[in-house]
């Protein structure tokens, strides 16, 4: 690391370009065999790793594909389609939209996740979507910790025109949430969505607070929270698995939403998560606006991960 | 969740014990494990490839030190290379210009820009004695400017008055003018989060950089980032002249491989790491610590240093003296709690330790709860001075009184007593084993804390202790620390919260 001529970071950037092209190169002209050759499989595995599936899941998928036989003359797009199929097969069982069916009303949805993952924005999007489907929605500004978090949700509530229950910054989140369920029940709304402060899953104190909020929600209505939605950021790497595991244990996660899929991150974490936890994936976020929430479509995400061109 | 590299390599090399030099086949076998370890730590694939190639070259033919196994030798080579690649030394901000020095923060949505802006401003104000002005150019996210204003109030740093309807470029101009007119030393520009593929927003960022000619442009990146780090780093550094990187959420338990990806792709130093939502959660980047963490070997060095910084020397000395006499009473326990609180509670502490199961277990049981420390403290506070120095006095009647006085229950008082008992025992054991010496020397008679560390690091022998050759200097004392059994936190902590 002493020779300055080619800074090593530039070499890596070059190396990166090579990776993205690698699959293509490896695949050209090798297709007279019935099983995929090693180079092709290496290319597949690396493509999967580059999409955040993690080395273990990537290796498993590689091995599955290695065991199969394919038509002679399969081309690059063909191989990508095979990858996409395999991924879609893993993802299909977890693609489940959030259903509003609670009786007695309201259906209480608790939204949780690590800091900055997109909880508050997702709540705005979800509220907007449900409203369009003719449900009445109310929000609870349960993040009393972060600066201007309440203001943020209030602006959203005003923009989309839904009522919001909020308290003071620094106030007791659990108390507010209790008030929210009370008012939501009294006014007879269909859906009550509760925002929470971002928290890293290794902070025991904050995770306890989350269990407390959960318990308080159940006091007025034992069925609440009906849904506990964990919001994951698509740019998150392998720690995402740990997030799911710990939040599921302490807060009883019932489903996932992945945000920020409008960037270059492919969200391969969901594949690893589907194999490991099998939790429903309700929706994906593809932008910062209220209309940027989409149902989770297993095939679409699988094609994006496999790089199938439309 | 994942095995540490030393565990992995242990397996690969067991059969190679006693070899003289590392041959290519050994090294290749080992580096397959290194590759997986790095990928699991979220280092980006092209960076992993480059790194592994470099290390292979270095490692082949090196003779194995007699004192250690080939596995440990490889870990050492990898660790050294990683540390070097991460940056040979920590770099602070360079603001040595005619004021106002402009610092611009950029990055993806939600990476921590606004919070970090306030943290840096606080640091510059308090440690650097600078007069700082902060301005938010975020006109996209609802209440973004209010967020920065609130943080400004919290850290007593001025923020540019909010004027609705201005574009980011307008705001930047106004901020510059205000900073010049009012004699600010530093102007910090917080910008909206943007995706590197968003042409319009990237263009806007360039325009802001053009008119404000920042002296530092810091890319703020989430330590939890995965493979996408390469794309982010590549695109942002193509658009503006980055001068450094800030890695946030290092208080999480991610391995933080993004640090290596960032460093490799941008070629710029990582200047700071964010270690919490609170505004004092900012530290200078320490390559060797992050290297250890990426390899899954825990952040033992920072733990010890943080302990050394926060421990009150006199308190520690007094405690050490008492321990020498075999006394450890409620006052001492309380002193321990206070130390823990100063260190950001057990949460922060335990988060820095190697991924030891016991620690995680203890944390899951709520041992990291700052509030719990407060409650324990309240219980001790409700005791009479006599009771504190002679806990044996506490009969049922007294316990009821104390529980009432502290707003807790007798059960909780009992748990505290049990904890004290077990901790006193632990102290005795430590004294017998002489384990304090190493640590004490390092931390300046770090008496009481040793007890805590001894408890906390129960089971760490397998992590740091197993690799005597590895970690950077000054760690000598740690492996010798006695470990208590499972859940080895000051005993009883884990039970305390079970209601
Ligand atoms: N590009 C993009 N940005 C998003 C998406 N979802 C959220 N964001 C942005 O990400 C940033 C953080 O979003 P928030 O909704 O505030 O995240 P949060 O999880 O509530 O954050 P905390 O409450 O601070 O933990 C904001 O700038 C959002 O506009 C998405 O799907 N795509
Ligand atoms: N645990 C932890 N949380 C952090 C850290 N830095 C920032 N945060 C939290 O992360 C979330 C997002 O931080 P912001 O500062 O709002 O992020 P941002 O980059 O300004 O977000 P946008 O402006 O929406 O792009 C907040 O909840 C912060 O409290 C850190 O080092 N550790
Ligand atoms: Mg929020
Ligand atoms: Mg911001």
Automatic annotation (TrEMBL), chain A:
Residue ranges of every copy of the Signal recognition particle SRP54 helical bundle domain listed in the record: 12-91
GO biological process, one term: SRP-dependent cotranslational protein targeting to membrane
Xref: SMART domains: AAA (SM00382), SRP54 (SM00962), SRP54_N (SM00963)
Domain of life: Bacteria
Keywords: Cell membrane, Cytoplasm, GTP-binding, Hydrolase, Membrane, Nucleotide-binding, Receptor
Listed Pfam families: SRP54, SRP54_N
Annotated binding of GTP, by residue: 113-120, 195-199, 259-262
Reaction(s) catalysed by this chain's protein: GTP + H2O = GDP + phosphate + H(+)
Primary location: membrane
Subcellular locations according to the entry: Cell inner membrane; Cell membrane; Cytoplasm
One cellular-component annotation, GO: cytoplasm
SRP54-type proteins GTP-binding domain segment(s): 106-307
EC top class named in words: hydrolase
Membrane topology: Peripheral membrane protein
AAA+ ATPase domain location: 105-256
MF (Gene Ontology): GTP binding; GTPase activity; signal recognition particle binding
EC number: 3.6.5.4
NCBIfam families recorded: ftsY
Subunit and interaction comment: Part of the signal recognition particle protein translocation system, which is composed of SRP and FtsY. SRP is a ribonucleoprotein composed of Ffh and a 4.5S RNA molecule.
Function: Involved in targeting and insertion of nascent membrane proteins into the cytoplasmic membrane. Acts as a receptor for the complex formed by the signal recognition particle (SRP) and the ribosome-nascent chain (RNC). Interaction with SRP-RNC leads to the transfer of the RNC complex to the Sec translocase for insertion into the membrane, the hydrolysis of GTP by both Ffh and FtsY, and the dissociation of the SRP-FtsY complex into the individual components.
Similarity annotation: Belongs to the GTP-binding SRP family. FtsY subfamily.
Name by which UniProt lists this protein: Signal recognition particle receptor FtsY
Species: Alterirhizorhabdus solaris
Species lineage: Bacteria, Pseudomonadati, Pseudomonadota, Alphaproteobacteria, Sphingomonadales
């Amino acid at each position: 690391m002493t020779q300055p001529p080619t800074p090593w970071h530039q070499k890596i950037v070059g190396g990166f370009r090579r990776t993205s092209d690698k699959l293509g190169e490896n695949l050209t002209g090798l297709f007279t065999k019935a099983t995929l050759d090693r180079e092709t499989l290496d290319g597949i595995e690396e493509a999967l790793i580059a999409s955040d599936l993690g080395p273990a899941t990537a290796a498993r998928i590689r091995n599955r594909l290695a065991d199969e036989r394919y038509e002679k003359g399969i081309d690059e797009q063909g191989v990508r389609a095979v990858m996409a199929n395999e991924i879609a097969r893993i993802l299909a069982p977890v693609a489940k939209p959030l259903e509003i069916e609670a009786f007695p009303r309201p259906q209480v949805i608790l939204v949780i996740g690590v800091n900055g993952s997109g909880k508050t924005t997702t709540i705005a999007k979800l509220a907007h979507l449900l409203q369009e489907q003719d449900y009445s929605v109310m929000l609870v500004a349960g993040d009393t910790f972060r600066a201007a978090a309440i203001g943020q949700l209030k602006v959203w509530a005003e923009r989309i025109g839904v009522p919001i229950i909020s308290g003071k910054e620094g106030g007791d989140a659990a108390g507010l949430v209790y008030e929210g369920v009370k008012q939501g029940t009294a006014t007879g709304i269909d859906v009550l969505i509760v925002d929470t402060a971002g928290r890293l899953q290794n902070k025991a104190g904050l995770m306890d607070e989350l269990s407390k909020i959960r318990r308080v929600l159940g006091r007025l209505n034992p069925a609440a929270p009906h849904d506990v939605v964990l919001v994951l950021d698509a740019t998150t790497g392998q720690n995402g698995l740990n997030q799911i595991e710990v939040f599921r244990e302490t807060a009883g996660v019932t489903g996932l939403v992945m945000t920020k899929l409008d960037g270059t991150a492919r969200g391969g974490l969901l594949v690893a998560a589907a194999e490991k936890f099998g939790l429903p994936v309700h929706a994906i976020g593809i932008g910062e606006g209220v209309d940027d929430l989409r149902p989770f479509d297993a095939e679409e995400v699988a094609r994006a991960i496999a790089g199938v061109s439309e | 969740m994942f095995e540490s590299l030393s565990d992995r390599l242990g397996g690969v090399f067991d059969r190679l014990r006693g070899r003289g030099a590392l041959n290519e086949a050994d090294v290749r076998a080992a580096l397959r494990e290194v590759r997986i370890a790095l990928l699991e730590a979220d280092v980006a694939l092209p960076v992993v490839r480059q790194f592994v190639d470099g290390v292979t070259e270095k490692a082949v033919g090196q003779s194995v030190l007699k004192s250690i196994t080939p596995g440990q030798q490889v870990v050492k080579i990898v660790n050294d290379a990683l540390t070097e690649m991460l940056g040979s030394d920590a770099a602070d901000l360079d603001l040595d210009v005619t004021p106002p020095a402009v610092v611009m923060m950029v990055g993806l949505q939600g990476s921590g820009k606004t919070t970090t802006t306030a943290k840096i401003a606080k640091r510059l104000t308090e440690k650097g004695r600078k007069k700082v002005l902060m301005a938010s150019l975020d006109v996209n996210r609802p209440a973004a400017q209010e967020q920065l204003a609130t943080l400004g109030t919290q850290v007593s740093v001025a923020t540019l008055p909010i004027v609705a309807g201005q574009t980011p470029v307008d705001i930047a101009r106004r901020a510059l003018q205000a900073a010049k007119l009012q004699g600010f030393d530093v102007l910090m520009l917080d910008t909206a989060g943007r995706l590197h593929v968003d042409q319009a927003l990237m263009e806007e960022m360039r325009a802001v950089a053009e008119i404000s000619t920042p002296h530092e442009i810091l890319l703020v990146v989430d330590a939890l980032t995965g493979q996408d780090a390469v794309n982010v780093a590549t695109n942002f550094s193509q658009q503006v002249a980055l001068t450094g990187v800030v890695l946030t959420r290092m208080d999480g338990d991610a391995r933080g491989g993004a640090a290596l990806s960032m460093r490799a792709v941008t070629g710029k130093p990582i200047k700071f790491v964010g270690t919490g939502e609170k505004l004092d959660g900012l530290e200078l980047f320490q390559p060797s610590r992050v290297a250890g963490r990426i390899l899954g070997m825990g952040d033992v060095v920072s733990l010890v240093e943080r302990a050394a910084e926060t421990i009150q020397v006199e308190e520690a000395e007094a405690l050490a003296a008492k321990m020498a006499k075999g006394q450890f009473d409620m006052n001492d326990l309380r002193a321990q709690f206070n130390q823990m609180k100063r260190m950001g509670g057990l949460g922060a502490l335990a988060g820095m330790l190697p991924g030891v199961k016991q620690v995680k277990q203890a944390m899951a049981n709520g041992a990291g709860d700052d509030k719990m420390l407060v409650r324990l403290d309240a219980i001790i506070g409700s005791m009479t001075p006599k009771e504190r120095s002679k806990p044996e006095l506490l009969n049922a009647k007294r316990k009821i009184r104390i529980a009432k006085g502290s707003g807790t229950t007798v059960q909780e008082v009992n748990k505290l007593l049990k904890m004290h008992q077990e901790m006193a025992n632990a102290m005795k054991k430590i004294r017998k084993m002489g384990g304090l010496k190493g640590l004490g020397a390092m931390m300046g008679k770090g008496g009481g804390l040793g007890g805590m560390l001894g408890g906390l690091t129960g089971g760490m022998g397998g992590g740091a202790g197993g690799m005597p050759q590895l970690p950077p200097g000054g760690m000598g004392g740690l492996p010798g620390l006695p470990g208590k059994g499972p859940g080895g936190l000051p005993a009883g902590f884990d039970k305390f919260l079970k209601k």
